[in-house]
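Hi D.,

Good news: the full-assembly prediction came through. Inputs first.
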Amino acid sequence: MTRYIVGRVIQAVAVLWAAFTLTFAILYLLPSDPMELQLAAAGVQEDSLTPDQLAAMKQRFGLDQSIWAQYWHHLTGVLHGDFGTSLSQQVPVSDLITARIGGTLTLSVSAALLSLVAGSTLAYLATFARWNPLRVFLTRVPALGASFPQFFVALFLIQFFSFQLGWFPATGNQGGKSLVMPVVTISVLTSSVLAQVLIKSFDETLSQPYIATARAKGLSRSAVHLKHAFRNAALPAMTILGVLVGLTVTSSIVVETVFTREGVGKLAQESVLSQDVPVVLAVVTVAAAMFVLVNLIVDLLYPLLDPRISHTRGRVRPAPEVVTAT
Amino acid sequence: MIVDIKGLDVGYLRHRRVQPAVAGLDLTVAPAEVVAIVGESGSGKTTTANAIIGLLPANGRITAGSAVVDGIETAGANERTLRRLRGSVVGLIPQDPMVGLNPTKRVGAQIAEAVRLRGGSPDEVFEHLAEAGVPDPELRARQYPHELSGGLRQRVLIAIALAGKPKLIIADEPTSALDVTVQKRILDHLGGLVREQGISLLIITHDLAVAADRADRIVVMQNGRKIEEGDPATILGTPRETYTRRLIAAVPRLAPRFDVRDQKPPEPILTLTDVSKTFAVSDLRRGARGFNALDKVSVTVPRGQTHALVGESGCGKTTTLRIALGLETATSGSVKLDGDEIVGRSWNRLRPLRRKAQLVHQDPFATLDPKFTIAQSITEPLVSFRIGNRRTRLERARELLDQVALPASYLDRLPSELSGGQRQRVAIARALALRPDLIMLDEPVSALDVLVQEQILQLLADLQAALGLSYLFVSHDLGVVAELAHTVSVMSHGRVVEQGPVAEVFTDPKSAYTRELIDAIPGRRVADAV
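Then the structure:
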């Protein structure tokens, strides 16, 4: 078991490093010159500076060094929690991130929890319902939820609940009330996807012979559904759980922009627009870290939920499926 | 009467129309009686069983008649009434023990549910496990299904059925999923239990031999109707219906079809010499160690004849087949196909040889791509080896379908439109596409009903005679081996324990293990009666 955990952690770190390196390569190999961008941001014409001034500035931002030296500098910096200085705002990137990460984390975690509850409940009811029209309706609902674009959902919620009913504020991140609509916006998509996977999984599980065994014992329908079907149906859905939680993080870009919330998502959107390379790099790295962490947790939870996956006992390498020799 | 069914009609609702599955059925089961319903897939035998235990699928409807179980009318009864019957009046032993238990729950907990429902104490779990013949009940109760062998899982399912203290146990196809010897021991045990405790037993089976060996009364069903009923002696001795006679004829006789005892064997097409296979098993506590799947196995397939590999699951027969096909590499030893050594060949150098040896699988439902038409499936090997063009391939497919006795109109069909036997014919046609010399048959009939089994075995024998094919035939069923094979190797724990002409091994088995296998074949009463 220890070996399994250590292996997974090493793998997670490797993925994180690869995400950082890839982002670095893409951002720094872009044709635009970061110096030029920065000067443009400050409203200074590059031609108005003397070569000496330019060189001094490049030295200050480390842009005179080779690409490898810059990469190394950034990588060691990140390991110490130092993401460099924002080109557009002239403040340490780590300060920008720490000031905003709390809001985004609250948003993501709340959205993930709501999706989990809403998605599971919907799937449970859709497969438990006996009245056929209700069953069909509940099975189709997730497809509808998954097809609305997030910005549309967000605008609809603002129009209805803020402007017409006045229940929730349309913008800002003051208090719990301002959190409701952004969280719902994200969850409409993620809970729908989760419900779709779960419903399919439930249907497959319910046709398994062991369900017939359970019913033949004389267990009630609800006992069979809850005690025998639910856990087995949830296993395949675990895999996409990591992806969905990742999705709540990326969704924050749209949602924070539409609801004007201060957060990492909005920071990402702004820094991409102003081509603030160090900030973009930091945001991507932080998002990747969250993504990797969630998937690591899912991986570690798996053996606890499925006794067939065991990492303590020896395993015979499973024989590959025999394919018809041609 | 525990079960009293009168004029029962059951149908399935499809596209707003009721398709009848059972029609006008009369059936009774008396206390402590063992009744067997015999019939092919689609005969309505499983529908009948489901109606008795109140487990008809959501689209199942009882449209007429009555089914009284332990004094309670189940036709038209609500879920609450039916649920009181399940477990406490009628217990069920499902068909396939490998998938009949919830994989994420300890087996003890699964039995405890049934004990709790009738208000028993948790300790009774161990009693029922012991009753079902599970050794070490305290240990086993804490294990998960995947940690138990198929035989033990079957016993756990019996324990679950017993835990409700039912008056009737329904055993659905109790012989189809496990090895014959294991199954025989379990059925003997179950037979003893129901006799001791006075429980009635309803056996649902496609195999008349099983029914004849174990039942007090046999009910033969065809197309949803009961066509014949009586005690085994009457059914076997004076069957009234042609269908019953066909079922009796399909029971393997253990009379070998071929006797090659005094003949000089023809040249071998496939020779395995001292083949061993060790699988690496990684064990975190004890380090890497080996598991010997095969230990110096030598097998010869004579040209134009059939050699059978027989043994229980885990004996190494499938590994031998995979090594012979070059899908698995031997740890040591030699495999010669038509004179060419295949051990140590790379995938690419093995590929030309693959045309000479083809494979037919056990499960005809899983071996055909559901999205391929029959023509696509059959011509795929030709496409893969770039043989011919579109037109000649289609022509060849037509010819192959003719050889396996299917009409050419099936070329455009999808596997889902075909029955199990028809699919197996398609799989055989596909194996024949490249005109191989040798066909490896991996349990080719064990997923099929007896009557279909008989037809497929006949087809294989006919093809062998017409095309001069050689077969390497893997089976757990000695009865089938007698129908098809010339020579046989009996395998156990990765070794060949006995080898020789089928006629010799059957009449004069040398090893105790072979004798046990022969004894386990159902159909004693049939053999005696005919």
